[in-house]
Amino acid sequence: MKQFFYPSSVAILGVSPRPGNMGRNILANLENIGFPGEIFLVSPKGGELGGRPIYSSVAELPQTPDLAVVLTPAATVPGLVEDCGQKGVKRMVIETGGFRELADDRRSLENQIVEASRKYGMRFIGPNCIGVICTESKLSVPFPLLDRPIRPGGLSILAQSGGIGLTYLHGCSENKVGVAKFCSMGNKLNVNERDLLAYLVDDPQTEAILLYLESIVDGRALYDLIRSTSKPVVVHKSNIGATSHAIASSHTAALANDDAVVDAALKQAGAIRAHTVHECMQIVKGLSLPKPKGRRLAIISRSGGHAVVSADAAFRHDMVLPPFPEEYLAPIQEATRASVIHLQNPLDLGDLFHFELYVDIVKNALAQEDFDAVVMVHGYRGPEVEVSRQFVAKVGELCKQAGKPVALVLLVDPEEMIEAAKLSSIPLFPFAEEGILALSCSQKAGGIPVTDRLGCAEGFDQDMAQRLLASAGPDGWLDLPEALHLLNAARIPVAPFVTALDAEDAVHAAETLGYPVVLKAVGGAELLHKTEAGGVVLGLEDAEAVRAAAQKMMDRLKPQRLVVMQQIGGGQELIMGIKRDPGFGPVVLLGLGGVTAEALGDVSLRLAPVDDNEAGQMMDELKGAALLKGFRGRPPVSRAALLEAVMRLAILADRMPAIAELDVNPLLAGPGGVMAVDARVRVAGDLPKPGH
Amino acid sequence: MKQFFYPSSVAILGVSPRPGNMGRNILANLENIGFPGEIFLVSPKGGELGGRPIYSSVAELPQTPDLAVVLTPAATVPGLVEDCGQKGVKRMVIETGGFRELADDRRSLENQIVEASRKYGMRFIGPNCIGVICTESKLSVPFPLLDRPIRPGGLSILAQSGGIGLTYLHGCSENKVGVAKFCSMGNKLNVNERDLLAYLVDDPQTEAILLYLESIVDGRALYDLIRSTSKPVVVHKSNIGATSHAIASSHTAALANDDAVVDAALKQAGAIRAHTVHECMQIVKGLSLPKPKGRRLAIISRSGGHAVVSADAAFRHDMVLPPFPEEYLAPIQEATRASVIHLQNPLDLGDLFHFELYVDIVKNALAQEDFDAVVMVHGYRGPEVEVSRQFVAKVGELCKQAGKPVALVLLVDPEEMIEAAKLSSIPLFPFAEEGILALSCSQKAGGIPVTDRLGCAEGFDQDMAQRLLASAGPDGWLDLPEALHLLNAARIPVAPFVTALDAEDAVHAAETLGYPVVLKAVGGAELLHKTEAGGVVLGLEDAEAVRAAAQKMMDRLKPQRLVVMQQIGGGQELIMGIKRDPGFGPVVLLGLGGVTAEALGDVSLRLAPVDDNEAGQMMDELKGAALLKGFRGRPPVSRAALLEAVMRLAILADRMPAIAELDVNPLLAGPGGVMAVDARVRVAGDLPKPGH
């Protein structure tokens, strides 16, 4: 990937002196940023532009460029890729649009490009993108003219949409957020977010990463990369509704993802998810400040109302406001004339107009060990402008000196905001809420260490699991005994059960298990909804009852087998399951069971496998988690046993890709442990062979 | 209230030539806005200022001013109020701070002000506020210098905090939102939001209202006012967390409200609740546009990415995107050169650079009957600036001509945003998400017609209810039979029951009711948690069982009475209740019952009384509402019976203010109706006297 960002020569294919030609903007961007390498221009009609020759073909170029940038009509692109391949070009940025995002019949054009690139071992970005920027190598090849300098810095931006990418790029420049690398990925035919993210994770210039995605091609790889890095990663994943999907597909050929899985995966990986452009801009502003080491804010405001609003924001974003120490407040108290302020956190400066003191107020707040970050809300007009601008300029320095963040909120008109931004070395926030959101996200951002998620793999009987999965019928479903045995193979506790072939067999099983027992008919897909079909009978108290029920079941349903199971009393009903996401792979699910909880949809998802912490978060983030922890005098369920069951299920999901879906419903949980009493398993794709 | 906004003369108390005197700003603001009436200055030291005499006392004024504005130290304020009273002044704006918001011992100062004002029949706004503005009468008395003209228009702003009030006032001017009236209310000792809102609801200049509140004094009156008007009302209610409460109390002496009740009341009244300053500004921008008649948006974007983000926003804000008609798209299709766009809604203009056509695209979209509003997302730079500015200027006109809103989103740098705003007659939005939020809120805003909420009062036996409430014990609790009879008095169905005094009595009762029955011990507060104490026995199937259980209960618990109740089988468990909010009065609650639903806290609130629609919304907004509507093959509960029970409970809450709290738990609901099987009622305050 590095070669995309650090080429020593660039060829622009599609530059011409014709009015309206956009290839010229690429040249202008390269010249404006001061690209130090060679630039070659190519266009069939030849000629010259600004003193540079235009070569009429790639073949004619005097040397092989490190990077070829293409902005020619879609139909010409496959030929140009072929030409570049023959010339020995290894990296291309194809900015041309008009491929699958326009119509399905353009896929053949795309296929030709992919084939040509394969033939020559080339990598390319796009098509349908606006290209690449690197502030270190001074490379800038987007086709829109970038009329403002890009501020160099530590944020790298990957965007599936050129328009949104530019919005973030410009927003960074306007907001004092320096940029390391930028890439608009378009249709992602060859290079995708995984390739680029892998590069940025290792790129020493990149300190934080912003990803704008409309679809996620290989969610699992993305997840692994985000999880692996300690660099903060902000993900603005759009395309969440059906209409969004239609437009996204016509714009960057994006497919829809299951948003609940995306959400869970990003949370699990330690990414920050932004939901709107405005929110995302605030978050990247926060990331450009020093990272808060904790949640403790000192809020200082010139307006009491904005102090209240700030405290609300701290409450919403899970930040805390410790009191200011006496020695911090003393000089402020002394300086206030009419003492119309009540000294607390948030600190309302009220009628304290000694602007010189403001610098000390911020400096001293940064020096306090009790605080991890400072929010300074300052509004000024008229005669206060000059001294306030000096203050604004100073705050950035204080922030850097202290290595602690200050969210500097300026309540000023837009014109003054522009002037203040020129003087400030740190981002400015329009309101306290935006600053506090930014600090909160920055504080939470960063990789989550991967602990040993495989501890619970111990004892997992993979051979047995494979044999059981191989027993699936043509419809993919396992019979109940095999489904339960599969849980046993993963060492997930299952209520004791025995398989029986007839009524006498069932009675014998019941005598062994002890009463009361449950009887379930086993017979393939048509009996999956056993309760409705009369295929489940509960509360059989003695041999006679078992015999009668079993006989009736055999007569009516003609099942292949019967399951006789110990009836487990009490316990909290939970559901636990596996599903397989096309992009993110195996996902485990935990939820409250019973019809009420299911109607409320109270479930938590994580990618498998999961460690102790992740399983614990799944349990804790259930809306009804209180039910598991001793609600209304009930005994709490065994946390250890529940987490172990979730971890073991996740191992099963991870090791056995043939499982398309699995439901344990219910899993009964009590103080002594958990126990599965029913399960459904569907196998898909190539069935595993027993013994490999 | 009108006299506060339309005085023909104003006295400013506390103006002096001393450097740093803030009273002079009040004078400057009045002069800048062009106040046409007389202005008098008062300060103990006398003198003159800018050619005006400074009177040394109120008594010396040559005439009685219509309005006196005070900005002097807190200790002097009671005396000045007395002076004004003697002079015959009827309206004061007390801007001075330093009262209860600073320390509790300042309450006596406040009391003196209140007493003096009462004595002379004066009304006053404040203290601790920044005053009043009226663009029609050209009155402007805030003490901060307002260095920009205020745009006249239809939005009136009431703010408890001066700082937030100014932020909204300036924000309106910057965003093309015209203002009718402004008032910062401060500590609300005399005039509060209810008084001002009542005035604004009738004020012909006021078309929409923005309320910023940190506390709500008389929530019920506020609710009634918002509900009564068809003018859109946006409420930014802050002060939601414990820390916020501490700072709000020291800043505008605000008490905390129960935020769940505030939320329910605002929703019920048809108000729009804003949660942040940024969000609130977007909403008022939306209100300054024509109101969308429905939810159908036409989204037009120059960037595909912004189109995707727009579609996400439409999805989140419950707006719909119908397809564009063929005849609308035909000219656009013709004009696109390379046809790199796929014509759908959102419409991605792709490489369509005919800016002249943009005007027609917007105009024709506004003309379509299929759309209620247009979102136009336009980004431009460099050579496109001139033609884009013409377009921006034109869109406002189109919007007014069509009487339909356009959310004009400009993706430009901040400098250009300022220039474009000068040319635009309508608000500009920074991103599509903000524009769509604004349109969505505007569409939903406006009063909700009050239907007949008292239909369910028919048959309510108020005398009986009063007698029952009078039977409460010294702790305020009713015994179970009286609680159940109270429900009967409100004609809420209760499971058939009989009160018994001993075991034989209980058996006789059970024989009359029919088996199975439930037995409950009745004996005052110590038996309220009957289940834990063994005071409830279920499933008694015959006389013998009843006799044994009753005898055991009598021996063990020595209850005063027993309740024998028919045991009702099946049905969905619900909870229903009354609570009384100090500000909003009687509140009814409906929730799913059973331990799972209770742990999940799935409840809905409304102020009592409620009509059919409101009761229906309570049912429908439960997260587990599906359970009531035929989930997994269960029969749906009787909607009519459930809504009637809620409405009847709300009548009870409304008519019987002595009820401090009431819980029906559970209320069993099935296809045939609903039935209360247990109830708790607590009476507080003066007990009602039977017979009136």
From TrEMBL, chains A, B:
Limits of the ATP-grasp domain: 484-536
UniProt keyword terms in alphabetical order: ATP-binding, Nucleotide-binding
Keyword match Chaperone: no
InterPro entries found in the cross-reference section: ATP-grasp, ATP_grasp_subdomain_1, CoA-bd, NAD(P)-bd_dom_sf, Succ_CoA_lig_flav_dom, Succinyl-CoA_synth-like
GO molecular function: ATP binding; metal ion binding
Origin: domain of life: Bacteria
Keyword ATP-binding: yes
Pfam families reported for this sequence: ATP-grasp_5, CoA_binding_2, Succ_CoA_lig
Name this protein carries in UniProt: Acyl-CoA synthetase
